[in-house]
Each structure stands twice: as structure tokens, then as C-alpha cells.
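Why do we care about 3D structure at all? Because function follows from shape, and shape follows, mostly, from sequence. That is the central idea of this module. The next example makes it concrete: a single protein chain, its amino acid sequence, and then its structure expressed as C-alpha cells.
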Amino acid sequence: MSARSRRIVLVMIVLHAAVLLSPTRAVELGPQGVVREFCQLDGMGQRVSILGWQQIAPLVSWSLEPAWDHVVLISGYAVGPFKPGEGGTPMVGVDYTDVGQVSAFGFDTAAQLETLRFELQPTEAGRWRINGPPPPPHIFADRADIEAMRRSFEEGGLNFIPNALFVWRTMRTEGWDVPFERTTDLPSGPGYRVVDEPAVGDVVLYLRDGDPYHAGLLAADNQVVSSTLNGGIVHTPLATFTGEVSYLRLARADRLPIAEVPTQAPAVTTPAARPTPVARALDRAPAQQRTPASRISTPRVLTPRVSKHKRKRQPPSKPVKKPGRKTKASPHPMPVAACTPR
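And the structure:
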């Protein structure tokens, strides 16, 4: 066989493998194939990557991926057989071998065998998609940079701010002294209490199998603002994220000392019974969190404004002229910011 023929055969093999591994191919294989493809992409970290979402989207029914504040590290998984669930709903179980979890608090080693059940639904095109609520990302441990992940959960990134961090920063910006907690720990933490009748400013929790998986803030009736991976900070109807809904309110009305309130927030000295509306803090969301509405299937994306510190500058001094005597102007010191290279 000539060298040219060998190259052609090699290209054909690569193309065939790409077709077999593509999301479209997995969808055509049926429910079990969809779940297998989802688990493989998830294990490779595609659910915590903005670019990777393009491969995940055809496999799932939810349009917005939560900006997760933790991930589960695994050493492997096994996809079970296709079985009918309650009411005949197609179900596929997956057994994960967990190694631990990574969050803003570090790496928690908790090896265990975890079983998740995925519910699927057929589409009009005769394909299958996984229904929400979504589980947290399950990433292969040998592909994870634990320290880089921990920093991203603690500080956020250029186009990413974890949902729990977004809620905490907004509360702090409004002057409320609350401890930072992961989304799953918010109901049991000391900062909030569960309420039945929600009000503007309350925390909205979305649950999967009784455990919170996503958090946002109630900005108006039937309007929630939250942080997502593929949409940035978005303003959506309450039912955009699936699962049971729970509401949290500040357990006590303690405000930060004025010196500790972030500079973006106006100084507030009079405590209130509950948080003021979050609209002002939402308008001050970082500009890098914006995402064009054409990129996501949500009603609209919040358009934040970046606040700027106002500096009162003194007019430059002018030389004082006296008859018969020449004087030089005394130099006026420039603000530090004006001397800082950008």
C-alpha cells in the first residue's frame, strides 16, 4: 500500500471515530447512548467550560447551566440499562466512583459509590434528551487541577462567578453581614432561615432530590436573578430552572460596619427588618458577566452598570503675579490613580 493510500485510510478511520463519538450520534443511539455520551463529556470537564456547553446542549433539556460552586471528582462510572421509571418515564442509572469534592473550601476527600438516575424525554425529532434538574459536574480526578478549581470557586473568573458567590457578594454589597456558604449548605447555615411566603430580596433555592443545586435572588414577582455558566448573570422567570423551590431570608438584620461595606454600595446606617431590594446591586454586576441575549434562550440578560469612584479634584493652582516680582506656580499633586499606568 502506498503512503498516499495509508493516509487516506487513516483519515477515514479518524472521521468514523469522530462520528461515533459525536453528540448527534449518541442521541441517535437512544436513551442509554445519550446518558453515556453525557457522562463522558461531563467527566472531561465540558460542563464547567463555556466552549464545552455546545457539546452538552443537544443532550439535555435545560437551556441554562448553573454556575456551580463545587464539582465531584470521580475515578470512573458505569452506565446501567434503560428502565421505565414512575409513570413509564424512561430512566437510566449511572454508578459513579467518587473520589471527593472541590469547592471554595478546598478538596474534601470522601470516596464512595454514588448512584444517579437520569430521566429522559423524547423530542419531536425522535431523539432523546436528559431532563433536569441537573446533577453537579462529575469530573475525572486525573483531569482536574484542584487548586485552580478551588480559586475559581473562591474568587470567580473573567466570565464566571459561582452561584453561591454571587448571592454572598450581593448581600455584602447591600451591607448585610452574612457568612459565605456553599449552595448545598445555605439552608443549614447560620445566616438564613426558611420562609414559606417569599419577598423581594430573598434567596431562591432550586432542589434536586431534596438537595439545593442552584441559588439566586428574588428580584420581583416571578423574577429571579442568578449566575449561570453559559449565560452569565441572567434575569429569568421562576420556572426556568427545574426542581422543587425553597426560599431563604436573613436570620437576623445585622449590617456590616460602615468601614467594611464594599465601596460600590452606598453607606447605610439604619438597619431594616430585611434586605432592601437587590436591584441596585444587580445594576452594579461586573461588566464581564454580560452575555448577548441571542446566545441564550432566556427572556433577557441583565444589563449591569459598572460603578466608578468619583474623585473630587482641586483646580490646578495658578501663578500669583506681584508687581515687580516674578513668581513660579507651585505644582499641584496629581491623584494617585492618574499616575498609575494602565
